[in-house]
Amino acid sequence: MTTLAAHSGYLTGRLLRATLRQPAFVAISLVQPMIWLLLFGELFRRVVELPGFTTGSYVDFLTPGVVVMTVLFTAGWAGMAFIDDMDRGVMDRMLASPVNRMAMMVSSVANQAVTIVVQGVIVVAVALLLGAELAGGVLGVLVMLVSAVLLAAAFASLSNGMALIVRTSESLIGFSTMLTLPLSFLSSAMMAREVAPEWIQAVSTWNPVDWTVVASREALSADPDWPAVFVRLGGLLAVAVAAIWLATRAFRAYQRSL
Amino acid sequence: MAVSAGRVATRRTTGEPAISAENLVKTYGEVTALAGLSFAVAPGTVFGLLGPNGAGKSTTIRILTTLSRPDSGTATVAGADVLARPDAVRRAIGVVTQGSGTDPQATGRENLLLAGRLHGLRGDEVKARADELLDRFGLTEAAGRVVRTYSGGMQRKLDVAMGLVHRPAVLFLDEPTTGLDPQARADMWAEIARLSTQEQLTVMLTTHYLEEADQLADRLVIVDRGTVVAEGSPEELKSGLRGDAVVIELAPDADLAVAGGAVEALTGLRDVTVDGRTIRGRVDHGASAVPAVLAALERESVAVAAVTIARPALDDVYLRHTGRSFAAAERVSA
């Protein structure tokens, strides 16, 4: 356990330093969520006039949705770093050393978590500038960030596990795109649940992406339904832990193919 | 902790091989990479695995470094079974993979520190060790630069330094000089030679350069199509051929028939051929045969322009054991 913590720390440091050394990448990651919020906010401004929307402004409604989409489009690519490591030979060197396998997964997740929190804070700041009320206040924002990090953990792990199995960036891009877009549209990220067709409502009940959106939106509302929030946070935690465990198992699949 | 584990492993294996492989078999679908490969490596020696691309060298390294599992067969490294105790093996070995195991986005020092810390070195110890290795490999000035900016030779040095950071008992070098320019290759050879002589390290290297195996390896196996076709020191393998080639160049006014007769009459000289003014033969020990050759020719008053002795190269060894030249094997697998 101490090895897991220590190795996770060292490996997270490596990933964060690498991110900071790519200023263009940092700039894009920071600007991208702002653009989504601005674009979608303008495009769908009047959508809140439909019955089913409970928030007054679409920016209020959209803020958790944009955070969740940011999670999907950031964490979904986590596996690219694994593929770089495989192509380079770093992966083989790591696996031939006493490095803790789960720490390799946890560090990737931690790196994503830092990115997501920074991006989430920027989204919140832009939302406030655009006139969002975010009635849930600081506590609501914190709950949103926690749920976003849990979702990021699940997606980053899936992406990493898939990277270990498919081993090429082309296949990983295909997998990630195939997963992220449908899952975000099969949720209430952009559109109120009540407006969506019934089958989408049914599917979204089991969609962790939707749990994140609902938990965040509730926590940010004026009068949160806390049991509903905690059920979903619990579900996200379970999914995240399961995904990390499963993805760690994928190292075996990778080594079997060597 | 990891370091002490490495030392224990070293002590325990004194007298027994540092690496042993027995009957390793590995297939990938239809392709047989290893077809019953066996060898043993004595501690503190440089052991070469020589063969053309596709002979099974990298597969062997991957099995011995716990990256891959054989279909059958067993192997121990630094006293630990690679299948039963992979963690003990991982603590005792340094691995320099083909290509590079360095992180291009990290600096040279960061790469070394991370490698050391993942092996259990901490605090001042890991920093001192990193600085020591940077100094030794001439990378101190470049230590703060990200590895992306390094030349191929510098990256390779850093690779080897990372493999040494935790003072392993056994170092694996998979094609350590592939892609290096001649100067960088010479530097790397000097460094590898130093590792085994000064640090009692067991080094296993794979190479498809005959010259490299000849220069560096105390012992080597020649691998072809997944099995060992020859084993020994480079000298043993070469003297297993039918001796040295002796080439006699005659002076322009020499009597060719007389010269040929004189040389053919010598005992110990075989396969004599006369080709214009050049007489070729094979002899067990070239250096000791030269005086007799010269004396015989002098008795017949034949003037000699030059006598040369060619030691057989590993090329000849490879040809003899596989029935094809090394270059031809490389072309087939490429």
From TrEMBL, chain A:
One of its GO terms (biological process) is response to antibiotic. One of its GO terms (molecular function) is ABC-type transporter activity. It is found in: Cell membrane; Membrane. It is a multi-pass membrane protein. Its main location: membrane. Residues 24-254 form the ABC transmembrane type-2 domain. The keyword Transmembrane helix applies. The keyword Glycoprotein does not apply. The chain crosses the membrane at residues 24-41, 61-83, 104-132, 138-159, 171-192, 229-248. Keywords: Antibiotic resistance, Cell membrane, Membrane, Transmembrane, Transmembrane helix, Transport. GO terms for cellular component: ATP-binding cassette (ABC) transporter complex. InterPro entries: ABC2_TM, ABC2_TM_bact-type, ABC_2_transport, Nod_factor_ABC_transporter. Belongs to the ABC-2 integral membrane protein family. PANTHER family: NODULATION PROTEIN J. This is Transport permease protein. It comes from Actinophytocola xinjiangensis.
UniProtKB/TrEMBL annotation, chain B:
Pfam families: ABC_tran (PF00005), DrrA1-3_C (PF13732). Residues 19-250 form the ABC transporter domain. Gene3D superfamilies: P-loop containing nucleotide triphosphate hydrolases (3.40.50.300). It is a peripheral membrane protein. It is found in: Cell membrane. SMART domains: AAA (SM00382). The keyword Protease does not apply. Keywords: Antibiotic resistance, ATP-binding, Cell membrane, Membrane, Nucleotide-binding, Translocase, Transport. One of its GO terms (biological process) is response to antibiotic. It comes from the Bacteria. GO terms for molecular function: ATP binding; ATP hydrolysis activity. PROSITE patterns: ABC_TRANSPORTER_1, ABC_TRANSPORTER_2. Belongs to the ABC transporter superfamily. Drug exporter-1 (DrugE1) (TC 3.A.1.105) family. This is ABC transporter. It comes from Actinophytocola xinjiangensis. The lineage of its organism: Bacteria, Bacillati, Actinomycetota, Actinomycetes, Pseudonocardiales.
